[in-house]
Design brief:
membrane; transmembrane helix; 334 residues; mainly alpha
């Protein structure tokens, strides 16, 4: 009688027990990080209704001051970020017995977060088209197509983190490639008859030809801010074939905090120009808001990618077959 065949090595098919345990722990940490970021981002978005969207002659112009002049659809668009913030606060809240007030599954919470931001962008798009027929349109400084910009940073932050874990590396690489695509959309989408890439090229020429160093510094700050998404996307693409040394790489941190840090340069400039006032405070708040929004979007993409790419049993080692982790798959019957 022939000898029994040896079992296949663990690395050939199924992951090792240590790898499954590490993936499950990472999933739980990501889910808790998403819940906490829902609270922080929701608070920042809800408070955005109390912050002036524009500063004129040292005085802030608030959303509620223009609401009576807007069409109903434009009114909803103007209040959409604050409403999304209240929704995120509800998604992040939990009780002593439940992991969430309405949604307990982490991946379902991630879907709800992404759906909220899609709804905000749709409301803004409809509101801008509606208000274009009225006497007072929505101000450009309030909404200027933030979706591609936010996508660049959120996809890069989530993709680099996922590259650390063997079971999610392919998904992480796909997210990093998608980040480059979002950057191309951002730079090649025409605005006011010109693509942003042309504006950046003109600013670069001005930086090199202006005679005054002060003007060069000012245009250089704007140019640095405008090239930030491209730099983050290209650095992410460089990680598409590499495995980070840490679970939360430096690029993931930079994708969340680099642009807000650059915005603080404008806060410093406003402070030097006229001291601490409405303009400096507004720019500082929107820097914090940008970091909060990118952070929660990155966490949502990260949790959703893990729930889709990794089998349920690996997200909850020791659970019986078919049980899986609570919330491993998004929007499924209980």
């Amino acid at each position: 009688m022939s000898a029994p065949l040896p079992p296949p090595p663990q690395g050939a098919g199924a992951p090792s027990q240590e790898e499954s345990a590490a993936t499950a722990m990472f999933y739980r940490m990501s889910a808790e990080r998403l819940r906490a970021r829902c609270l922080l981002s929701g608070l920042a978005l809800a408070l955005s209704a109390l912050v002036p969207y524009e500063v004129a002659f040292g005085h802030g112009i608030f959303v509620w001051s223009v609401l009576p002049e807007l069409a109903p659809a434009a009114q909803i668009a103007a209040l959409a970020p604050a409403l999304a913030g209240l929704w995120l606060l509800l998604l992040g809240a939990r009780t002593g017995r439940r992991a969430g007030l309405f949604i307990e599954r982490p991946t379902s919470r991630a879907v709800a977060v992404l759906a909220a931001f899609v709804a905000v962008n749709v409301a803004v798009w409809v509101g801008r088209r509606s208000s274009a027929w009225d006497m007072l349109p929505l101000p450009d400084s309030l909404f200027t197509r933030p979706a591609p910009l936010l996508a660049v940073f959120a996809l890069t932050a989530a993709g680099v983190v996922l590259r650390f874990h063997a079971r999610a590396r392919r998904g992480g690489s796909a997210l990093l490639v998608a980040s480059v695509a979002a950057a191309l959309v951002f730079y090649l989408w025409p605005s006011r008859g010109e693509i942003p890439a042309q504006t950046i090229a003109r600013a670069a020429v001005l930086v090199a030809t202006l005679p005054d160093a002060r003007f060069q510094l000012g245009y250089g700050m704007v140019l640095l801010f405008a090239l930030g998404p491209l730099a983050i996307a290209l650095l992410g693409l460089d990680h598409a074939r590499r495995v980070p040394r840490r679970e939360h790489p430096g690029l993931a941190i930079a994708a969340v905090w680099a642009m807000p840090a650059l915005m603080l340069l404008f806060v410093y400039r406003a402070f030097l120009a006229g001291g601490w006032g409405v303009e400096a405070a507004t720019v500082a708040f929107f820097a914090l808001l940008l970091a909060a929004v990118v952070a929660v979007l990155a966490s949502a993409i990260e949790v959703l990618a893990l729930g889709v790419l990794v089998p349920d049993a690996e997200l909850a080692p020791g659970a019986p077959d078919g049980a899986g982790a609570s919330g491993a798959r998004p929007i499924v019957a209980a």
